[in-house]
Amino acid sequence: PQPVYLSDYQPPAYRVTHTELTFDLDPAATRVKARLLIERHAKADANAPLVLNGEHLKLISLSIDATPLNESAYQVDAETLSIANVPERFVLESEVEIAPQENTALEGLYQSNGMYCTQCEAEGFRRITFYPDRPDVMATFKVTVIGDQQREPVLLANGNPLERGELEGGRHFVTWEDPHPKPCYLFALVAGNLHSVEDHFTTMSGREVTLQVWVEQENLDKTEHAMASLKRAMVWDEQAYGREYDLDLFMIVAVNDFNMGAMENKGLNIFNSAAVLTHPHTATDAAFQNVEGIVAHEYFHNWSGNRVTCRDWFQLSLKEGFTVFRDQCFSADTNSAPVKRIQDVSFFRTAQFAEDAGPTAHPIRPDHFIEITNFYTLTIYEKGAEVVRMLRNLVGEENFRRGSDLYFERFDGQAVTIEDFVGCMAETSGEDLSQFMRWYSQAGTPDIDAHGEYDYVHGEYHLTLRQRTPATPGQPDKLPLHIPVRMGLVGTKSGQDLTLTLNGEKIGKDAVIHLRDDEQTFVFTDVAEAPVPSLLREFSAPVKLHFPYSREDLAFLLTHDSDGFNRWDAGQRLALLALDDLIAAHRNSVEKVMDSRVVDAFKTLLNGPISDKAVLAEMLTLPSEAYIAEQQPIVDVDAIHAAREFVRQSLALALREEFVAIYEANVTEEPYAPTPEQIAQRSLKNVALSYLMSIEDEQGLALCEAQFSADHNMTDVRQALTLLVHSDRDDLASPALKSFGEKWAHDPLVMDQWFTIQVSRPQGDVLERVKYLMQHPAFSLKNPNKVRALIGAFAQNRVNFHRLDGQGYQLLADVVIELNRLNPEIAARLITPLTRWQRFDETRQVLMRSQLERIRQQPLSPNVYEVVEKALA
Ligand code: B3K
Ligand code: ZN
Questions:
Q1: Does the pTM of the predicted model rise above 0.95?
Q2: What's the 322 CA to ligand 2 centre distance in angstroms?
Q3: Which CATH number fits domain 1-192: 3.30.70.1140, 3.40.50.300, 3.40.640.10, 2.60.40.1730?
């Protein structure tokens, strides 16, 4: 397979102005008729052939302006249809046959649980009909869906329904019209035996919108939260961005087999059932929050993505980075803002930093790719969002809003580039953002080495920041970036933020300084007392900050920093220092000794006044094994696990009474609601329980068992079950697992959790369990959620996946090889943990590489090929 390059971009020679489609549904032989109004681009060569994309299509007929084309007039190969000598304007009609039931890749038109659905982004539409499958071709669509009245009573497509009627042979049809020009990746069709919950929304200009959530009958009681989230998102986008909805109908559909979380098809968002269905008894607090965020994300795409779309797929972050930023802000406004930031950053620093440091590292705007599906990454999405956040910090909130207004207005109905977006921000703010643009083209995470010195005599604080971005594949040399560093100086005597004076100017107590050069020294004057600097507040830039904080400095920031995020981060840094010592002790077989400063810090937190329970729960949570691993030069999975367990147990032993008190103070009999207050209480209670269970004493076990049997809500039940299964008390865990598995055998989303809990345990029997569970009737390799819940979760199980006999790697490779044939997109994603081989000891490196080599020897999809080649390069 050959890569495509951003620098080769050419505007399309022909555009489609209007698209009419008729689907005659059949599992083995669906007929798709297309009628396309096509125009040659004014600047295009009059002799340019018309080239359409098309894959896995059986061509039945083809005509131009109602004249059938004979076979010499066109050429078809496995990927394209070319027609030479076409007029300047014409109507192209085609009919093709496709087989949705054979489609296991879940791209294009496929079947899930007997219903029909589509996934077209990025290049799935070419599996439906011959078409210029690129986002810069935007057309209005009229779509007729014909199906069986019994099997497919519901027939949906984008836009508003125009007409419906009965046909011969028990068939019926519905015709839909979408007046907003769109690229074909936003096309959607759904047909099946579905039921809807309906609600209404009045937009700020008074437009009445019908809202529907379509699900299978047994899930009708799991739609309330998605609907409520949708309405909150609609209000929020009006208030925060002045954006209102633009059709009479907005539909969400839940499907069981879906590669990603959801898809923002115009007016007809299709969701992975895991990203929409919730019920107190089946979904955890985290799932409720995830649903809220994804519903909002897809809704926000209606403007950032649909009304204004991407010129080409290299610009993917234009819509994704911006939309993730928008959904992050929405969730922050709706729930606890500091917790949202802590959770996002904690995930980002673990997973995106790892991506940026590995062989698949790529810029937010890649300059080439083989398979675009491989680029729906944490870099495009999450780092893209961090860059938009930096932009807002650089230009200020007001200019940012004016910039986004200008962007939506100026480019409405167009397919544009990242320059167009940043250009609007530069225009409304007057800022020079040219150096800032490097964030989009340079891969890798910048390291910032910082140090500071307090000059008592002159009352000055000298802060030196040095940036350097490590080489990444294809980018050996990096240029300095424009990095906004939000900071304060916390006085060690007063415990307060000091007023900052820089270059003779008072800039406040909390300010953004701009690092543009390789190295810069900032001299703060009028600094009356020795300060501890609080840097990168709220994680103001996606960088690794190194500052030689002492443990005393960190304990000080933990209690005094005015920035909640940095208070949490100080705790994490303090814990990491202690963990470092313990990892070394474990490796050297020296007795482990707990750092009393960490115990004291936790004690202060537990005994202090609790202002925000959700933040406290985060502060009491130790860095994950994956994040600890990120900080180590060579990952020693066993030492990391042992060190972290040692810290957990030491804290539990030292602070047992406090944890019991916290637990008891946060038990409630109230009926479940996913409110910030209740979620905060449950998180705090469940963190306390996890400490108590780490020492497996009688009281902890009793509380855990009682919480499991109380069966009050899934958050509590899942936490209790996880702690039992991850303990050494199989006598308690086995019956609990069994009863849970039997109770929920009918619910695929709960069974996903049941799989994950079992294969995440640290005990040594996990590999056998994975193999055994792969034979379980509830498991299927064809269902992406199942693959993620069982295989994906196992590959995150650090001690077991990285077994020294290499069997964990081998199992993953076996699955990748099989999935490569069924679903290349999921197969390619699943390889990720193996691509990180450089981070491990030599024995494991050899084992991991040999599995990658074994995969490489197979006939491969472009998706898997691209990832494996990069991993072994
Ligand atoms: N835009 C979709 C991505 C689906 C692509 C799958 N190959 C989901 C989202 O970001 O909203
Ligand atoms: Zn998105």
A1: yes
A2: 9
A3: 2.60.40.1730
